[in-house]
Request: fold
Amino acid sequence: MKRKLLSILDCILAVFPGRRAYIPMMAATSVLGLVLFLIFPPAAPMTGGGALLIHNARAAHGRVNTSDRAKTTRNHYLTMNPGETVDLSPGPVSFGKHPELLSRVGVTSRYRAQGSGHAVLTLGKGRARHQVYLFVSPLPSRQVSREDVDWYKSQFGTGYANCGPAVVSMAVLWARGQDIPVQDIREEIGYPYDDGAVSFDNMSAELGRHKVPFTTPQLAGPTDLRGIVDRGHIAVVLIQTGDIDKVEGDPVTDLVGRYYDDDEGHYVLVKGYTLDRGYFVVYDPYPVDWESNSLRYGDEVSMIGKNRYYPAEQLFSALKTPVVLEVSSN
Reply:
């Protein structure tokens, strides 16, 4: 090949001596570059959220009013393990019609977690009344969370292929307390691929734009992913959803397993793991259905993609790439 190229160049120089050889040589170089590009195309980056959600394009809602981003809330978000206790003084405590996932310890103001799931309780009275959104893990677990804001986001109603923008929106809210709607993240990223997918590079640039610290480690095994949680960080991973077994029971009460039928590349956020090392706790932005996304947990507020438990070995084997985004808050 090398000899043929040199022979072609010699012929050009013979026909076009001196400076006149410049133009035909440039043309020959361009043709050669095109041939090499067609023979050895560049490797495509790993992306998620492409054709998976394209059927939702017609369901996209209008732009969210961003003037409410900085509003403070008196609501409290509490994550507990079964058997743990919490002091809810001075009280009183009311569960209303939601599942009573706490039992009072004697005549004290301490309450012990029982059962598992999501519930809303009202704490205090008069002007001091506020809501506590409670989640009790089905298994003892270590989780990274925030008590001042609900940072789970669904991609429902935000346009198509928005699992990437949704997890970025979650990461920004968790790390900085800044609530940027999924649609705004999508507008900032744009549509780098025809099917709406985004890559880790796109999401990395978006995290950097919002001054969220992150690294891009490569996982060797599930232990590395648990290590991210142990450091108090969260992880954005790209999985093939069909590699996660579907939930065996009702996803409203059974938190273990995939709750939808799709089998596609998809971004989810890992925020915890069970102490028996059997499961990772995941924020999955996929809506339970595309028509209304109406199915909720027992608190009638939390969407089914929040706090899903995916088997650890399955989640790791489902990774489409060992590279993850490890997001921290400092």
Remarks:
- The chain has seven helices and 16 strands.
- The two ends are 54 Å apart (CA to CA).
